[in-house]
Amino acid sequence: MLRQAADKDASLDIASPPLSLFAFFEVRDLLNRASRPRLVLPLETGADLTLLGSVADRAARNGLQARWLAQECAKWINTRAEVRSSSSPLPQSAYVIEHPEPARSCVITGNCPLTTDGLGLAPSNQFSLIPCAETDDEVKLFSAWYESLWSALPASCAAKDQLLARLGPIADHVPAALIYYRIRSSRQSGVGF
Q1: Does residue 16 contact residue 39 with C-beta atoms inside 8 Å?
Q2: Which domains does the chain have, with CATH numbers?
């Protein structure tokens, strides 16, 4: 539903407790097509965004693309996305897609964070309700709710900077020799690695 609704004429508003780089990869075309992508994350709470996914993403992590994905996500955040930080944890996720043709607009809410298991792309043991609203009145109601949430959050570069700071260690190049040196120094000091 998310892929079908969003295109270059649609605005996309997302509120998500976590954000997985592997889910970002799966929907990056959609995110790049949106005319006005806005993202609310619980950055101020110190919440773990699970950028490297969950247990279900082990195969994706083994693909060794996390650095590239973090760079791509940072590029998208810098060039396309508006980001604001929630001062409290987000209890659920919301995707508000508004299209110039009201029949193509929709809202998806519930336990569907921007993660591979939240989007139904990876197996999960979640049993949750994920409603989809498609009528014009419902979309307008949720859009007004998101707009009030967005307006209540501080408009500054701080949220974007916080998110980029969390992506930085993943996106940065780390010399392979560093692993050797860490293992060697831990063995010499008697500390397990």
Answers
A1: yes
A2: 2-189 (3.30.870)
